[in-house]
Design goal:
The protein has 466 residues and is of the alpha+beta class. Helix 6 packs parallel to helix 8. The termini are far apart.
């Protein structure tokens, strides 16, 4: 990426200069306040600016200072052409004036209070910017700063062989500085982290970029002993894509070529499985599938081979995913096989393993039982089935205990509630005792005086013969 300093020597006091690519006077820039550092934002960066826009006669038509900073993605056509050109030359903290001819602004369109064919003047302050996020999850794990733009439109894809120069460092320590050539998807064999491989799929030839790669996209919790990179460190790379050789696209191949390429990736995948490099093997099988996923136009003989290779690729994808404990994806890979071959023993067995990994013993049991229906002597399925039955029994016992504990807990609560209610009731015996005492202490009635042997209440509230 060109910097403002290299583009415009003598920035302050030298007046406005033409920064339009065609040098046609379409975008003139004058620096009011220089920025800091040497870096400028690259295409894809999210920039945050303040601006005030005026017409040539000084009439203000808009200003972010009336409402707050303005943010946009640079180089994506979301603003007028003059802004994509001019803001890309600004450094952090810089304030400049852009004079934009209509062809680089709104042209012949009347926009709000801006008349058609207006030359516009913007005072722009660069507050800061966020680098372009190349991670699939947009979690800022792979950030790119383009230092030198590429010269071609095409970019490499998985399977392409790239020729690059890489310089890597962590915490200021350079651990890698070399030219290296490798197929995308197999970078770990060449001590290239997955985040760098992911980023290269966005590079153009001759592009030079700075990449900030979080540990999870770098060498992770294992680090890299060969390069003396410790575990869980973030990486910074400066990478130049010198050239790349693209794999021939499947749509440009005849059927025999597609089968040939599929077999090539199958052999690579087997090599990586034997070396227990399951992620690399998975990449090979995914590449294999891209060539033979569609059966349109295959001759009868080649179609039979295509189907066989496709089933093998998906079964091996399931195996690699199981080894990486990606059980949901493994189950999906098995389903694709079973959709065309419902009695495929390997697919049934690996689906059962996936369900076990997902702690669904009932579904796993069904899969292993299906294997035994096809092959009653299959010892692996019989053993796995026994494991399922054991897990199901343990789960039922656990559930029974949970329900019993819940019942006991509720029963205890009911008893406590009943005891509490009982405490709130009056003491009947105490009340009767007090009433009996009152009876003895009061004056006898005339009837009682005349009948001294009348049945009376004792102090305990019982009747007795007086």
């Amino acid at each position: 990426m060109r910097s403002a300093r290299s583009k415009m020597p003598g920035e302050v006091g030298c007046g406005a200069i033409d920064i339009s690519p065609a040098q046609d006077g379409g975008v003139l820039k004058e620096i009011i306040k220089p920025g800091a550092g040497d870096l400028t934002p690259s295409n894809g960066s999210t920039v945050n600016v303040h601006y005030t826009g005026t017409l040539v006669d000084g009439t203000k038509f808009d200003s972010s200072r009336d409402r707050g900073p303005f943010s946009f993605s640079l180089g994506q056509g979301s603003v007028i052409k003059a802004w994509d050109i001019g803001v890309a030359t600004m450094k952090k903290g810089e304030i400049c004036k852009l004079t934009c001819l209509p062809e680089y602004a709104y042209g012949s369109r009347e926009t709000g209070s801006i008349p058609a064919n207006s030359t516009l003047i913007f005072e722009i302050e660069m507050l800061d910017w966020e680098l372009e996020d190349l991670s699939s999850k947009q979690d800022k794990g792979i950030l790119r700063q383009i230092l030198t733009p590429g010269v071609e439109i095409s970019t490499p894809s998985s399977g392409s062989t790239v020729d690059v120069h890489v310089t890597g460092e962590y915490n200021g320590t350079v651990f890698d500085d070399r030219d290296v050539s490798f197929p995308l998807g197999e970078g770990s064999e060449f001590n290239i982290p997955k985040g760098l491989e992911k980023a290269l799929q966005k590079f153009k030839v001759k592009e030079k970029s700075r990449l900030e790669i979080k540990a999870r996209y770098g060498f992770g919790s294992e680090g890299n002993k060969q390069l003396n990179v410790p575990p869980n460190v973030d990486l910074v790379y400066v990478v130049t894509l010198n050239s790349f050789t693209e794999l021939k696209k499947s749509w440009s191949m005849d059927d025999a070529e597609k089968i040939k390429h599929a077999k090539m990736f199958k052999e690579k995948g087997l090599k990586y499985i034997n070396a227990q490099k399951y992620n690399l093997a998975l990449n090979m099988y995914k590449n294999m599938i891209t060539y033979i996923d569609s059966g349109y136009g295959f001759s009868e003989e080649l179609e039979k081979e295509r189907k066989s290779l496709l089933i093998a690729a998906r079964l091996n994808c399931a195996l690699c995913l199981l080894k990486q404990e990606k059980y949901t994806e493994a189950q999906a890979a098995c389903k694709e096989v079973l959709d065309v071959d419902p009695n495929n023993i390997k697919a049934l067995y690996r689906r059962g393993q996936a369900y076990l990994g997902l702690s669904d013993a009932d579904a796993a049991k069904e899969s292993f039982e299906a294997v035994l229906k096809v092959d009653s002597s299959n010892k692996a399925a019989a053993s796995a089935l026994a494991q399922c039955n054991k897990k199901i029994k343990e789960q039922k016992e656990k559930e029974k205990q949970v329900y019993w504990n819940m019942f006991a807990k509720f029963a205890k609560k009911d008893q406590e509630k009943e005891d509490e209610e009982r405490k709130k009731q009056p003491d009947v015996m105490k009340t009767l005792g007090e009433w009996g005492k009152d009876e003895r202490e009061r004056e006898p009635t005339n009837f009682e005086k005349e009948n001294p042997n009348i049945m009376m209440l004792d102090g305990a509230g019982d009747f007795k013969n007086m």
